[in-house]
Design goal:
- This protein is of the alpha/beta class and 329 residues long.
- It is built from nine helices and 14 strands.
- Strand 7 (199-203), helix 9 (216-227) and strand 8 (233-236) form a beta-alpha-beta unit.
- Helix 2 packs across helix 3 (33-41).
- The longest helix has 18 residues, at 14-31.
- The chain is globular, with a radius of gyration of 20 Å.
- Mean pLDDT is 89; it is low at 318-329.
Length: 329
């Protein structure tokens, strides 16, 4: 698989993406027992899948109840877990080769922001740091290391120390990336901290029951006013994926070249919608080479004319719709 992994991060066209997706579907059908059962119960013939829209997407909820991994589970290097929300069952993503994840998030970060060495990276992730298995903490721990700056680091709830670091770089030429879970950024901005143009503020979503949920546009507008910045950035990723999409201040998410969004009909999960229509978000993540690259999430969104994703929320019945279409033992 080394050649295919190399190909994943050198995609330069729609045709190469689709070709690699079909190839990866065949590999995961043969190597991932659970995914193969899912495809077979849908009565889909492997040889009849010739384009991206014909590939079956696995409902993301199965990561809570089954091991979604290709052959070689005994050699897994890391296990990522989600926070236990909703029905209290965390998702688990068994990663056989952590180097693939590292290549994916480093190349993705560099595509959108440049080298991490150019930044002081401040991560305000209290709820992620308080548990094990967070892929977000894993990613930013590596980015912080590569920033190689004495003031880069994680902050739990010690806002006084964080404010001291922030003040050090106000009106500086040093670029600063301030990343935080949504509720923690709201706590910080309400301390009347005005930032300067060298700061990038990035929210990762998640109120985790600490505050009422807010629409993305409402949240970004509020943070812009309170921090006195022109843009708020966002990161879209999840435990079950090894790639990220980024919002660069315009409320839409652009995926890395080895990742793609498709929108499915909420009443017919095997029907895909054209641009501009709202539905469930399916994700193709070719970096997920050793688990499943074709995942039907329980997020709602739509694709704009530029192929970017507008994230609109989640299904109300996210634990039932999709998984109940088919029982896989």
């Amino acid at each position: 698989m080394s050649l295919q992994i190399s190909d994943i991060f050198n995609i330069h066209s729609e045709a190469s993406f689709n070709h690699l997706a079909i190839s990866q579907f065949g590999f995961q059908f043969s190597q991932n027992e659970f995914y193969r059962k899912w495809v077979q119960q849908l009565n889909i013939n492997l040889n009849h899948v010739t384009k991206l829209s014909e590939i079956p997407f696995l409902p993301i909820e199965f990561f809570k109840t089954h091991q979604i991994v290709c052959a070689g589970i005994k050699n897994k290097e890391v296990e990522f877990t989600s926070s236990a929300t909703g029905n209290g069952i965390p998702s688990k993503h068994l990663v056989i080769n952590s180097d693939v994840y590292q290549i994916s998030f480093l190349k993705g970060f560099e595509l959108f922001f440049g080298s991490p060495a150019d930044y002081v990276i401040i991560a305000l992730l209290p709820n992620y740091l308080s548990r094990k298995g967070s892929s977000l903490v894993y990613m930013f721990n590596e980015l912080i290391k590569r920033s190689n700056h004495q003031d880069s680091g994680f902050f739990l709830d010690n806002l006084d120390s964080l404010i001291n670091v922030i003040k050090k770089y106000l009106h500086s030429t040093q670029k600063v990336l301030l990343l935080g879970v949504t509720y923690a950024l709201l706590d910080l901005c309400e301390l009347n901290i005005s930032l300067s143009n060298n700061f990038i503020v990035m929210e990762t979503g998640g109120m985790k029951g600490n505050r009422p949920e807010m629409l993305k546009e409402e949240l970004h507008n509020y943070l812009k006013v309170k921090f006195r910045v022109e843009k708020i950035y966002s990161e879209y990723g999840m435990t079950e994926l090894l790639s990220q999409a980024y919002c660069m201040g315009n409320l839409t998410f652009k995926p890395v070249p080895w990742m793609k969004f498709l929108i499915r009909d909420v009443n017919d999960p095997f029907c895909f919608l054209e641009k501009g229509r709202t539905g469930g978000i399916n994700v193709v993540d070719l970096a997920n080479v050793n688990s499943c690259s074709f995942i039907a999430t329980m997020d709602l969104g739509r694709i704009n004319e530029n192929g970017e994703l507008q994230l609109l929320g989640r299904y109300d019945n996210s634990d039932t719709r999709g998984c109940n279409l088919m029982a896989v033992n």
